[in-house]
Prior knowledge:
By secondary structure, the chain is mainly alpha-helical. It is built from 16 helices and no strands.
Amino acid sequence: MTNDQSPTTNDHRPMTNHQRLLAQQGETARQQGQYDEAIAHFTEAIALNFEYAWAIAHRGETYYQMGQYHKALVDFNRAVELNPNHVWAIAHRGVTYERLERYPETLADLNRVLELKPDYPWAIAYRCRAYEMMGRYEEALQEFDQAIALDETIIKDWVTERGLILSFMGCYSEAMVYYQQALQETPDNHLTLYCIAFTKTRWQGLAAAQVDINKAKAILHRMEKTHDSSAVIYELGGLAALEGQTEMALDYLEKAIFLDYLPRRRALHDLAWLDLHGDPRFQALIAP
């Protein structure tokens, strides 16, 4: 998450010390996860100056972090109305659109941001995600490589993630090179092992991938005992789907979706779930 640190950034009316203090208190509370307190401070600051774009944008980001995306959009829209070149607000509005799966609007905002600030790896990485969610994998890979060239830390587990895009493109042998590289760095990385399992299944068949599936399951079952993680549960479901254990797979998927928004979107693209795309229960689970 990028931070627009100055409480006066992009604002034109003079700020009083009290307004700055309220805004900074709101930002401190937001960064500490105290969202209700943050909203209260930002709202008080905005009440003193209805054109306080910085406070409005950061209240929008607070709403975003609370999962109140439509309220976030109201604030981001207002901040951008006050300052059409407010890069931070435009970027975070774009990501809010991405969370709402409004991808054309996501791209419009991120394209605008990158016109204003071309070497902004955070925005490039989110444009990559938007392309990936739209199934535009070649464009996603180009964005991915550009973001990593600017900042390798911008995408977590980037070696595995690059392999994942290649898997989506059907470039299985090339993807496996990246997965093996990632395993050399972190041998028990559950995401890497999961990607190897479904990639090898699609590439060489279930029998050839069974050892890899079993290895991934062993790691995930160990993690399941200590982590109530939607990612772990989701990946166990994907492995069950690969093995044809449909009801078990869908039970895992349902639980994962209950815990977090991301598993539903992952399942739309994940090659592990490919054989279940026509299943009515699967279709119901992944429906927006």
